[in-house]
Design goal:
The chain has 4 helices and no strands. With 129 residues, it is mainly alpha-helical. It has one domain. The longest helix is centred in the N-terminal third of the chain and has 60 residues, at 3-62. It is rod-shaped and about 110 Å long. The termini are far apart.
Length: 129
Amino acid sequence: MNGLELSEIVRNYGLLIGGIVGLALAWIRTSASAKQADASLRQAELARRDHVAELFNRAVGQLADEKLEIRLGAIYTLRQIARDFSDLSEPTLELLTAYLRKSSKGYGDKEPPVDVREMMSILRNSVTA
């Protein structure tokens, strides 16, 4: 074995070791990036859930408001929450049902107010969906 062959062997082993080290570093970096991305997604989902909880609580408080527009806005907010979050669908519909029971009045031959009709429509559509 002459000096040229020895230098090629050393060079090839050096390239092999460099490639292995490079792959290991790339793997470590990719793993860290994936963990960071997962943590960011979890944080974003938690922030979204907090926002929805705030919307839900605000809407519940607005159901008894004197102004029809505010009550309708609350009803539409609750409807959207029930659609977008399957785990909140049942509690939202139960809330609307309880609100209707509590505030039901004998309307006789008259048509119920718009907000009551909208709640009934939401509940009716949730049963058929």
